[in-house]
Amino acid sequence: MRRQAAPVRSFSRQIIKTMAKRDYYEVLGINRDASEDEVKKAYRRLAMKHHPDRNPDNPKAEELFKEAKEAYETLSDSQKRAAYDQYGHAGVDPGAGMGGAGGFSDAFSDIFGDIFGGGTRSRSNVYRGADLQYNLEISLEEAARGTETRIRVPAVEECGTCHGSGARPGTDAVTCPTCGGHGQVRMQQGFFSLQQTCPKCHGTGKIIPSPCTECHGSGRVRRHKTLSVHIPAGVDNGDRIRLSGEGEPGQNHGPNGDLYVVIHLKPHAVFQRDHNDLHCEMPVSFTTAALGGEIEIPTLDGHAKIKIPAETQTGKVFRLRGKGIQGVRSHAPGDLLCHVMIETPVNLTDRQKELLRELEAINLTDDARHSPKAKSFMEKVRAFFN
Fold first, then answer.
1. What pLDDT is stored for residue 45 in this prediction?
2. Four-CA torsion 376, 382, 383, 386, nearest 10 degrees
3. Are 125-158+212-266 and 272-385 the same fold in CATH?
4. Please, what is the Cα angle at 102 between 7 and 180, to 5 degrees?
5. Backbone angles phi, psi at 273, to 5 degrees
6. 103, 163 in Cβ contact below 8 A?
7. Among residues 170, 180, 221, 168, which one has the least CA distance to residue 204?
C-alpha cells in the first residue's frame, strides 16, 4: 500500500487543481444555453480587452486572455462542450485521466465513447488543415489605391484517383488488427491502465493494404492553384489578407485551413512611407533657396507647387496636408512632408566661379549678417577649446 500512496496523492492534487478552475460560462460571461454565435462574440470581446499586446504593463491581462481562450476552445466545440456540461472540467482536462481502474481514466473514456457513439472509445481524428502564408510584393501606388492581383501558390488537394481514401481504386482500407479499429491501445503497467495512440494505424483505426499509386496512400497530392486577391486601398507593410479555406485541407473531411497573404511594399524611387504619411527629399537650387521661388514636386495624385521663401535652409520641412495615404482603418489621408535639400552647384564655368568668389568676398565683410549659423558655430568652437 505504501507504493500506491504517491500516485494517489498526485491524483488528488490533480482533482483539486481541476476543481479550482473558474466555470467556463462564468469566464465568458454567458448563460449555459448560449448559442455558438454568443460564445464567439463573448470571446472576441474578452480577447480584444485582455490581449497582451494591448496591455503590455498588465501581467494579469495575459492570464485572463489565456483563461478566455481556454474557455472558448472548449465551449465552441460541440463535443467538448457536451463533455464539459456533463462532467465539468474533469470531462475535458486530459490531466484528470491519471487514475487507475474505476477512476477518472475509465470515466474519461466513457465520456468520449458516449459522444462518438457505440461506446467504442475511439477518436474522431478529424483535424482542421494548417494555415499557410504567402508573401506578396506590391508597389506604393498599388498599396495606396488598392488593386486586384492573381497569385500562384502550391497546394495540397484531395487525390482525384482515390478520392481521398488513400487506397488503390477497387480496394478499401481495413480495420487495424492491432487496435481493433479503436485508434488506441491500452497498456497495463502495474496498478495503472494507460491508453496511447496505436503505433500501427497512428490513431486512424484503419490501415491501407494497397496504397493508391498516385498519392502513395496519403489521400492528398501536391498541385499549384491560382487565386485572385483583392488588395484594399491603404494597406501597409506587414498587413495580412486572409483567404478563408485556401490553406491545407483538413484530415478526415475536417475544414481547410486559411491562406494569409502578407503585404510587402517595394522600395519607391521618390517617397518613403511612414504609416499614412509620405516623406520625400526635395532638391532646391542654391539661388532659389537664397532668393526664394516656386518649385514643382510630385505627389501620388499628380503634381503640386510649393513656394520657397527666401533664405530657406537645408532641413526645412514643407507639409502638404492630405497628400499622403489613407490607411485601411483611417478616416482621413496622411500628409506629404517635403524635406529641403539645398543642392550645391557643380561643373561651374570660370565666370560662375568668379561670381561666387565675389559673393564670398562681400559676405566676409559682414559674415554675422549673411552667415549667422556659421558665425555662431565658430564661436562655440572657440569656447570649447578655450
1. 87
2. -170
3. yes
4. 105
5. -90, 140
6. no
7. 180
For 125-158+212-266, CATH gives 2.60.260.20
Q: What is the end-to-end Cα distance of the chain in Å, rounded?
A: 91
- 110: helix, coil or strand? helix
Task: Please answer whether residues 219 and 164 qualify as being in contact, where contact means their C-beta atoms are separated by less than 8 angstroms.
Answer: yes
Confidence (pLDDT) at 286: 86
Position 194 pLDDT exceeds 80: no
Q: What is the mean pLDDT of the chain?
A: 78
- In this structure, how many other beta carbons lie within 10 angstroms of the beta carbon of residue 207? 19
How far apart are alpha carbons 122 and 45 in whole angstroms?
Answer: 35
Distance CA 24, CA 42 (A): 12
**Looking at per-residue confidence, does 118 or 68 come out higher?**
68
296: left (phi over 0), alpha (psi -120 to 50) or beta: beta
Whether 191 has a pLDDT exceeding 90, the answer reads no
- pLDDT at 289 (0 to 100): 87
Task: Please give the C-alpha separations between residue 52 and each of 39, 48, 60, in angstroms, as whole numbers.
Answer: 21, 9, 9
CATH architecture of the region 272-385:
Sandwich (2.60)
- In CATH terms, 2-116 corresponds, of 1.10.220.110, 1.10.287.110, 3.30.70.2660, 1.20.1640.10, to 1.10.287.110
All structural domains of the chain with their residue ranges: 2-116, 125-158+212-266, 272-385
Of 30-34, 252-256, 306-310, which has the strongest mean pLDDT? 306-310
The pLDDT assigned to 81 comes to 84
What pairing do the DSSP bridges indicate for beta strands 336-343 and 277-285? parallel
Q: Could you tell me which residue, 44 or 86, shows the higher pLDDT?
A: 44
pTM of the model: 0.55
d(CA 97, CA 108): 6
The C-alpha cell that represents 76 in the structure block: 465552441
Q: Residue 111: what pLDDT?
A: 32
Whole-angstrom distance, CA of residue 140 vs CA of residue 269: 10
DSSP code of 161?
Answer: T
247 with 132: CB under 8 angstroms? yes
Mean local confidence (pLDDT), 76-95? 75
**Which has the higher per-residue pLDDT, 268 or 14?**
268
> Of 19-23, 222-226, 261-265, 277-281, which gets the smallest average pLDDT?
19-23
Strand, helix or coil at 22? coil
